[in-house]
């Protein structure tokens, strides 16, 4: 029986986070006397990032400078600016005077970068288990051995408890994959109050000019995202340090204070656009866009029958819909099933959450190697856990931990303390 290949690190999943790590490895090896051997396994047949929500006019909610590398290595040839130069659009982008590229453009940037490190990844390989000695097995029967494991398996669509999907009822991550099968609907219902919900509402309202589009959420109105300069400092690398060092009660307060930087928050321009549509229809006496606020679904049947309850009055109403879209967010993937018996050796806190070191390493006494998480660390590292904002710095820290150093090429000055945040 052949001996499985062994690597310094194996990355499970190849989304933006592990793509950024592959780039960090490539740049490290270009200058290192002792290169790091790394390989990444991705179940998709090619690189893809939220393809179902790559709407034509949707923009990123993060500055292009928070790409895969710039915060770690501003001189990197893998930067978004280098991508623009290679595509012949650098001057055009500068003239555009915009920090926030189209989402489809940023996805093309990711694909461009992934192709440059294609020798480090194998697509179409779904990891199904990790055994003793970090023996990694795939659904296709391939076996690899790793000294360190980096889990970057992304997020899972969140469907509210007690609800299911069907041919007429989807999560928004499937939108563009399935919308071509929908023809001349009379009514569409979108459930959720965040950016994706607002984007889907606007998209369906434009795509089906004869359909009624109902946006259902528990809030009184869409809440704008807070992207002001001081609030945005929670995404800074030093903000991660501050959060990690904070007591649990301070962590909870910080998450509560700054939830509107990311959760159930919508770009103000999109809020204004939807309100303009609503007002225009009211003027013209044509009511296609309906905002059903302070309401919650209590039942959604597979054929699209939605029963709503008013949170203010308790009254119930029924909507017969041709399409129902849950824009209800995502949840981190639980690594325990993948790790099997190794998962039982991962230490947890008093609330049953995985204990994670500052370098994103799971606390695993007695294991010969280390397991790192890219995502699922909000309880320890704050809101940047699953976001692009700190990805470049995070992968530098993970690689630095594997190679024996901090890994970041950026020296962040001390600006504020944990006490100041509280």
Which class of secondary structure composition applies to the elements? alpha/beta
Give the mean pLDDT. Answer: 91
Shape: globular
Largest sheet: 7 strands, mixed
Our count of helices gives: 15
Give the C-alpha Rg.
23 Å
Q: Give the percentage of residues in beta strands.
A: 15-25%
Question: How much helical structure, as a percent, in the residues?
Answer: 25-40%
N-C termini distance? 58 Å
| Total number of beta strands | 17
> Unreliable segments (pLDDT under 50, ≥5 consecutive)?
405-422
Task: Offer a concise description of the structure.
The protein is α/β, with parallel strands linked by helices and 422 residues long.
Overview of the molecule:
The chain is an alpha/beta fold. It is built from 15 helices and 17 strands. The strands form 4 sheets. Strands 1, 2, 3, 4, 5, 6 and 17 form a 7-stranded mixed sheet that branches. It is globular, with a radius of gyration of 23 Å. The protein starts with 5 loop residues before the first strand and ends with a helix. The C terminus is likely disordered.
List the helices and strands and how they pair.
Elements: E1 6-12, H1 16-31, E2 38-42, H2 80-87, H3 90-96, H4 103-116, E3 121-123, E4 127-131, E5 135-138, E6 143-151, E7 155-157, E8 169-171, H5 175-178, E9 187-191, H6 195-207, E10 212-216, H7 229-232, H8 237-245, H9 248-257, H10 268-284, E11 289-292, E12 295-300, E13 305-310, E14 316-320, E15 323-326, E16 330-332, H11 336-339, H12 341-344, E17 370-373, H13 378-381, H14 391-403, H15 418-421
Parallel strand pairs: 1-2, 1-6, 2-3, 6-17, 8-15, 9-10, 9-15, 10-11
Antiparallel strand pairs: 4-5, 5-6, 7-16, 12-13, 13-14
């Amino acid at each position: 029986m052949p001996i499985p290949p062994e690597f310094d690190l194996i990355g499970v999943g190849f989304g933006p986070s592990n793509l950024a790590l592959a780039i960090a490895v490539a740049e490290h090896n270009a200058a290192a006397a002792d290169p790091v051997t790394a390989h990444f396994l991705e179940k998709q047949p090619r690189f893809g990032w939220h393809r179902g929500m790559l709407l034509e006019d949707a923009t990123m909610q993060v500055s292009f400078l928070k790409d895969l590398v710039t915060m770690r290595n501003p001189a990197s040839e893998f930067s978004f600016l280098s991508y623009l130069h290679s595509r012949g659009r650098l001057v055009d982008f500068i003239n555009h005077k915009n920090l926030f590229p189209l989402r489809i453009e940023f996805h093309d940037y990711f694909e461009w970068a992934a192709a440059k490190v294609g020798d480090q990844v194998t697509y179409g390989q779904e990891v199904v288990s990790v055994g003793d000695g970090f023996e990694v097995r795939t659904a296709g029967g391939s076996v690899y051995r790793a000294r360190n494991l980096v889990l970057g398996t992304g997020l899972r669509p969140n469907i509210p408890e007690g609800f299911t999907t069907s041919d007429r009822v989807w999560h928004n991550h499937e939108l563009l994959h399935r919308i071509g099968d929908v023809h001349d609907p009379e009514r569409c219902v979108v459930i959720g109050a965040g950016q994706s919900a607002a984007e889907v509402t606007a998209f369906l309202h434009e795509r089906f000019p004869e359909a009624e589009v109902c946006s259902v959420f528990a809030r009184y109105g869409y809440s704008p995202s807070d992207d002001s300069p001081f609030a945005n400092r929670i995404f800074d690398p030093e903000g991660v340090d501050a959060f990690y060092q904070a007591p649990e009660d301070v962590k909870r307060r910080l998450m509560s204070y700054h939830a509107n930087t990311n959760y159930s928050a919508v770009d103000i321009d999109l809020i204004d656009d939807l309100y303009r549509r609503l007002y225009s229809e009211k003027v013209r006496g044509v009511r296609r866009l309906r905002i059903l606020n302070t309401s919650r679904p209590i039942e959604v049947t597979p054929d699209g029958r939605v029963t709503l309850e008013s949170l203010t009055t308790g009254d119930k109403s029924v909507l017969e819909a041709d399409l129902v879209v849950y824009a209800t967010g995502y949840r981190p993937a639980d690594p325990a099933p993948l790790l099997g018996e190794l998962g039982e050796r991962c230490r947890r806190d008093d609330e049953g959450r995985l204990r994670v070191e500052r370098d994103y390493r799971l606390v695993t006494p007695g294991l010969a190697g280390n397991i790192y998480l890219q995502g699922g660390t909000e309880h320890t590292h704050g809101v940047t856990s699953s976001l692009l904002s700190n990805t470049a710095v995070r992968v530098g820290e993970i690689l630095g931990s594997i190679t024996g150093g901090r890994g970041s090429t950026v020296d962040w000055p001390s600006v504020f303390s944990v006490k100041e945040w509280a």
